[in-house]
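Handoff note, outgoing to incoming analyst
You'll be picking up this chain. Sequence as last confirmed:
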Amino acid sequence: CLDRTICLWSFCFPCARWADSMSKIGITGFWTALSFIALGMISTEATDGLFWVLFAAILVRMRQKLRHHFGMDADSCSSCATDCVAITCCFPCAVAQDAYQVELSLADRRGADEAEAASSGLRAAAASAAQR
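Most recent structure output, in case you need it:
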């Protein structure tokens, strides 16, 4: 893991980290995502794992939405299969991958917003100086 905070949250509190990622990019709200994942885990336990197939399919679909949001390969057989394997074999690893992508995107967006603000500030100062 490249970011220790993401790793910690993804492996110790994967449900909360996953819900945070989904809410930050607008796929669903935090509490909705957290409730969904908790209900899915409880249902899987209550049915001795039978619910897992449906739950995993929904998680794959949510991950495909995340891929689509970032312009990555989505809705292909290979991306669905890759997501299914990632979610089934190591859910915290998939959560960490998603979180890292989301946080990287948000950092890029913040950097672009700061650069735009600085640029507009320089333009305003130049315009003010030109008027004098």
